[in-house]
Amino acid sequence: MKLSRPVSWFLLVFGVWSWFIWITFVKNLWQDGSGLAFDDAGDPTGYFWVHLTLAVVSFLLGTAIGVIGFRGVRALRREQPEQQAQGERSS
Q1: Backbone angles phi, psi at 41, to 5 degrees
Q2: CB atoms within 10 A of CB 27
Q3: Which of 10, 57, 69, 85 is deepest in the core (most CB within 10 A)?
Q4: Is the separation of the CB atoms in 77 and 12 below 8 Å?
């Protein structure tokens, strides 16, 4: 399957965006002072574990989506010089 340039870039940017958002979220979760993520004894709560699991899954999916986009962009760049060389030969 061949991805278009816009789709490839969208997937790559989505992967990077996903990492940015979820790293920020995990930092905020880790430093939570509201009592949601950690109880009075400082132990993680169910809220912490559920949201950490969501973040890890999002990291994995964001990485997979970003890799697909990166491969698409790389394939298009590799294809571009070949097309130019073919165009010069046909002229």
Answers
A1: -85, -5
A2: 9
A3: 69
A4: no
Q: How confident is the model at residue 81 (pLDDT cuts 50, 70, 90)?
A: low
Read off the tokens for 31: 């430093």
CA–CA distance, 44 with 38 (Å, rounded to integer): 4
If residue 44 lies in a helix (H) or strand (E), which one and from where to where? none
CA distances from 5 to 64, 68, 72 (A): 18, 12, 7
Contacts of 80 (CB under 8 A, 6+ apart): none
Short-list 29, 83, 85, 91, CA closest to 56: 29
| Token output for 18 | 């996903």
